Amino acid sequence: MIIGIIEADELDDDVLEHYGSYTDRFQQLLFTADPQLSFRTYCAVHQRYPQDINACDAYLITGSKYSCYEEIDWIKRLERFIVDCYQQDKKLIGICFGHQLIAQALGGQVRKSDKGWSAGLISNDVVLSPGWLSPAQQRFSLLVNHQDQVIRLPEGASLIATNDFCPVSGYQVNRSMLTFQGHPEFSRDYLRYLITKNRQEIGDQVYLQATQSLEQHVDYELVATWIVKFIRDQS
Predict the structure, then answer these.
(1) What is the rounded CA–CA span in Å between residue 135 and residue 222?
(2) pLDDT tens digits, one per residue of 3-61
(3) What is the bridge-based pairing of β-strands 58-61 and 2-7?
(4) Do residues 114 and 149 lie in contact, with contact meaning Cβ atoms separated by under 8 Å?
């Protein structure tokens, strides 16, 4: 099975050297669920996409430092790709920015949270358990680093997970699209690097809370299993 990683950002050389690319991180994550997966990389920022949408069995849109509501040509082009996937029932996973942009592209709404930044480990309540969500859990925890969030789901979407800061922290659209606000691909070291770099912007209180939360368990492998099962699910 081939998964196309749609990178929605460009990382600087220091990050690439120490933490790897988006594709590197998602490959490492999803290999825990299926080591036979193959990956291809596409760059949304430079509007590089497969010539044929069926070149991959599924696609995944990464996080980004951009906001999905910015009036930028490559973001608009990525929205059209999302609509194409939706119309052709192509499996699509959205993480953070990807989670938000899928909602926006399909008629939902995204905005900056009045609560400011959410960073560190966040626990989510599972509110719907489809067949692919196995092993079933009532709660799961992921690392987050965001201000923007989905405030209205697109028509036909089903809420999967929620938390106090971000009520829409995971959702499914029909049987083809699955998204999470959290980052299953983030290591603790990478998030620590990000919040340290952005400490002045996120504020000392958020920084300290986030740093302390990194000692807790993160459900990397659980969410990787859910993603792969969702992609394989034909029901």
Answers:
(1) 8
(2) 999 999 999 999 999 999 999 999 999 999 999 999 999 999 999 999 999 999 999 99
(3) parallel
(4) no
Q: Cα–Cα distance between 165 and 161 in angstroms, integer?
A: 12
Question: Shortest CA distance to 142 belongs to which of 191, 106, 101?
Answer: 191
Which residues, other chains included, contact 158 with Cβ-Cβ below 8 Å and sequence gap of 6+?
Answer: 128, 171, 172, 173
Predicted TM-score of the model (pTM): 0.96
Query: Which CATH class name applies to 2-112+148-185+219-232?
Result: alpha beta
- Rounded to an integer, what distance in angstroms lies between the CA atom of residue 64 and that of residue 66? 5
Domain assignments of the chain as residue spans, ordered by start: 2-112+148-185+219-232
Q: Is the model's pLDDT at 115 over the cut of 70? A: yes
Q: Give kind and range of the element (H or E) at residue 227.
A: helix 220-232
